[in-house]
Every structure is written in structure tokens, then in C-alpha cells.
């Protein structure tokens, strides 16, 4: 996987069928603080995109405990962890469908459960 560059932004926007805010692009490309900490600013979307496009070990989200290692807030309940896992999976699937290279994400330890999960997001 190559360093995240400006050319990927248009591909990401097309895959997700959204237009990213300037603060989201700045966070994805440069690592600057994402949009304000208020809700509905696109911070989690930018975080998920950056997480998927950054090189590293496979992301293992086999359980709520494992998901805690990757969520974008310091404390959250089971409902947020479940939502975050599914939200990341939806972006991951759209990236895969668009041919965007990402870190591998393992939502289940066995491949058949992984495939079923991703096909029903």
C-alpha cells in the first residue's frame, strides 16, 4: 500500500458516494485534527477512511474487546462498538468493491463468517 496521497480522495469520494469536507481531507492526508469534536461533523468517517488506508497489521475486530482497540472515542458502550464495527465494515466493503487497496480487516476469525458478514452489510 502506498502513502495516502491527494489522488485517492476523489476515488474514496466516488466509492462512498459522498463529498468529504475540507477538514476531513486534511485529516486523511496530513493527520491534522479532524473536524470539531461535535457530533455530525464527519470525524468518524474521516477516522475510518484513514484507518483503512494507513499501512499496518490487519485490523482484528473479532469481539467488542478487540473493537475497543480501534474505535475513535475514549469510552463507549457496547452499542457504539457494534455500530462502529458495522460502519467500518460498510466502508471497507465499498472500498473493496471499488478496488481501493486497504489494510485487511478481520471481523471474524473464520473466512465463511467474514464473507457472510460483509455480504450482508
UniProtKB/TrEMBL annotation:
Protein name: Uncharacterized protein
